[in-house]
């Protein structure tokens, strides 16, 4: 059973979603930085900015400038004029954390108790309460650090302060929690402490393991951006083999899920008997279309398919000949996006104010609650491909947008030529997020990659949210731990 890891070298090298690769680079850089591995964070951000340096991305990395300034280790891609105290002060003002607290303005020792009390009694790692606890603990660490720093003691004495140790200890148990790392990187007043590896020592982290992981991460990301995406094992499987993997891994990984729903694990996700040639022909006649060959092959193996596991919940089923039909989108003019935008919003526009092609009337391939899967017809796909071509060839489109779009499309579809040959595109909609697959087969391949993920709870959840726990020092020896200071 595969585990859901924050850093997965195989996924970095093979996932078609290049946006996922960039996001992983950024998320790992943040955690390496708060653990004192600022050189590794610098290398990852440098690699990221060499590939994607939009205004949106530059805004996202701003808090890490505090770490780079503390260690005086800057990515070459960040110009000298952005490294000044004046510019850093602007960042402090611009990224004020979401939850305000008077301790930010007045260093009142009694406020520490309030902050620790606010952080008490919430063991959840997700949701609003968990986020509030993350904020309270970082505020407590910042306040405790400022209070003990008033007499300018050495950093070792600051770290040894009981209140600093208490805050570090509480933070160290929930590195995977909502906004735990995000709030840490936003506080410039604690980077003098974090840069020494104080948090890593409190967890405690085996620094040899962490450094080895950092080296592996850099090598994996470098290989991906220089050599492109590697073929994933699922791309060599037949449709029958893909369905067998979906069936096997879903039933293995969802026993607890079905118990919570009060249901038995299904004996099989296959819908038998499979569809006959006559049934498939009748379906095409009813819809007045010629369905894609890979979907028709699927129907001859299984006339529909049950809900499959994706690491978090069960996805929608896949419809067979009796259920497949034309459907209505909840938003008629929703634009067709065939590439995943890194910033989360459509960044391509047609000239002269023309609207981007919409889904029009698609075929509903599967549905459960708010989760839906659609077939986009070849006519709509053709209009959308023409829109992409017009934008890429337009002199009004910025060169960096053209380059990023081309990289995203090549990563997902293999080449621009393969992209231009798309016909029946599958769109999966999950809570407002859409993902496109060039063929029904590619859609199945993606589901097989997700279904291999184990249950995301307990230790699996901790490891998913923080590399520090997979690098934990199982037998820490405090008297032998060397304090790692920032180089003067």
Indicate the structural class. mainly alpha
Number of separate strands: 5
- Order the strands across the largest sheet as they lie in space: 1-2-3-4-5
- Could you tell me the radius of gyration in angstroms? 25 Å
Which shape, going by the Cα principal axes?
globular
Elements, N to C (H/E): HHHHHHHHHHHHHHHHHHEEEHHHEEHHH
Low-confidence stretches: 98-104, 476-488
Which strand-content bin applies to the residues? 5-15%
Question: Major beta sheet, specifics?
Answer: 5 strands, antiparallel
What is the typical, i.e. mean, pLDDT? 88
CA(first)-CA(last) distance: 46 Å
Count of helical regions: 24
Helix share, percent: 40-55%
Number of domains: 2
InterPro entries: Knr4/Smi1-like_dom (IPR018958), Knr4/Smi1-like_sf (IPR037883)
Pfam families: SMI1_KNR4 (PF09346)
Protein name: Knr4/Smi1-like domain-containing protein
Organism: Cylindrodendrum hubeiense
């Amino acid at each position: 059973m595969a585990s859901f890891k924050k850093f997965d070298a195989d996924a970095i090298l093979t996932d078609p979603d290049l946006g996922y690769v960039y996001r992983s680079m950024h998320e790992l850089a943040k955690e390496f930085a708060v653990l004192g591995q600022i050189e590794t964070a610098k290398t990852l951000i440098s690699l990221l900015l060499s590939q994607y340096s939009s205004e949106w991305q530059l805004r996202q990395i701003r808090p890490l400038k505090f770490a780079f300034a503390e260690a005086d280790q800057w990515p070459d891609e960040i110009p000298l004029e952005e490294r000044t105290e004046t510019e850093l002060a602007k960042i402090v003002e611009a990224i004020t954390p979401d939850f305000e607290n008077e301790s930010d303005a007045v260093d009142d020792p009694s406020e520490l108790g309030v902050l620790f009390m606010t952080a008490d009694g919430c063991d959840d790692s997700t949701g609003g309460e968990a986020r509030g606890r993350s904020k309270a603990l970082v505020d407590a660490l910042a306040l405790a650090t400022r209070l003990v720093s008033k007499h300018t003691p050495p950093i070792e004495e600051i770290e040894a302060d009981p209140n600093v140790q208490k805050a570090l200890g509480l933070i160290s148990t929930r590195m995977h929690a909502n906004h735990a790392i995000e709030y840490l990187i936003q506080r410039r007043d604690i980077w003098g402490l974090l840069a020494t590896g104080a948090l890593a020592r409190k967890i405690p982290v085996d620094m040899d393991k962490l450094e080895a992981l950092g080296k592996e991460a850099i090598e994996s990301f470098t290989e991906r951006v220089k050599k492109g995406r590697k073929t994933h094992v699922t791309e060599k499987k037949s449709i029958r083999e893909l369905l067998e993997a979906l069936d096997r891994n879903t039933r293995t990984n969802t026993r607890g899920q079905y118990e919570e729903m009060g249901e038995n694990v299904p004996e099989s996700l296959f819908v038998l008997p499979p569809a006959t040639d006559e049934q498939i022909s009748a379906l095409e006649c009813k819809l007045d279309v010629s369905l894609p060959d890979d979907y028709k092959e699927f129907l001859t193996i299984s006339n529909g398919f049950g809900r499959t596991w994706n690491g978090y919940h069960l996805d929608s089923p896949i419809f067979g000949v009796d259920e497949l039909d034309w459907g209505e989108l909840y938003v008629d003019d929703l634009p067709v996006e065939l590439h995943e935008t890194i910033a989360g919003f459509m960044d391509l526009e047609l000239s002269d104010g023309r609207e981007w092609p919409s889904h029009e009337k698609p075929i509903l391939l599967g549905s459960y609650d708010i989760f839906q899967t659609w077939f986009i017809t070849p006519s709509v796909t053709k209009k959308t491909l023409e829109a992409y071509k017009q934008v890429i060839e337009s002199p009004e489109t910025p060169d960096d947008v053209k380059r990023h779009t081309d990289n995203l499309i090549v990563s997902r579809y293999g080449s621009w030529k393969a992209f231009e040959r798309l016909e029946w595109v599958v769109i999966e909609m999950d809570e407002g997020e859409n993902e496109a697959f060039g063929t029904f087969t590619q859609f199945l391949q993606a589901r097989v990659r997700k279904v291999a993920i184990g249950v995301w709870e307990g230790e699996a959840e901790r490891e998913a949210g923080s590399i520090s726990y997979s690098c934990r020092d199982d037998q820490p020896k405090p008297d032998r731990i060397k304090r790692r200071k920032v180089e003067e």
